[in-house]
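Quick one: structure for this chain?
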Amino acid sequence: MGVDELYELTGQTALVTGAAQGIGFGIARELAKAGSRIIIGDLNLERANQAADDLQAETGREVVALPLDVTDAKSIQDCVSVSIDRFTRVDILVNNAGMHCEKVGQVSTPEHFNRCFEVNLFGVWRMTLSLVPHFKAHRTGKIVNIASINGRIPWADTPAYSASKAAVINLTRSLAITLGPENINVNAVCPGGVMTAMADLFTHNAEDMEKEMIRSRVIKRPLFPEDIGHAVVFFASSRARSITGQALNVDGGAVMS
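Got it. Here's what it folds into:
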């Protein structure tokens, strides 16, 4: 049985933030393969347009790119308004946009904390608030927040990043309680270390870090963006209709909780 038959997202529309590359693009790709139309919202519109062209050519799904800054209320509102005008409705919101605010071995500063929380936490909050009225009007909606296993087991070197991702996990649970009566599911995926362009900026030696991550896992292999995408597709599907407020680790068994 193929992914399309299993998850049946055909006819639905997914808005994925920060989806021009890395994990976000992997998520958008798997949602498209499962049948969904895709909106790629990203700060870098040129890169987002290229990603949309590539994804549409590969999957045959309708894919559009829109400028999006999750720290700016007007940018968010414009993105959501254009998305609804274009597709009539949005069924799935994936809050993937995020950033590493510190490098391994770097002394964390108040600026790191402010930036991490502004993007990683408040960005999720703002995007969710912008679409909640739309979801409520349709009495359905799937929200998937991309957290991190660093929100479960923090790294000493990255307190701002780890704290922001822990907050995303708890926000997910709070939103699930609030929005559950409206038939809106809210879940989180907690990736382990996926070596993307963003991860390369996080460390001074990406190759050594990836080896260390693999050593920490029960399943001794690298993680790829599509691994995270598979979990998101499940949460977005009707198979997860009774699952909400959960945070699923996708990390090769590095953290078991």
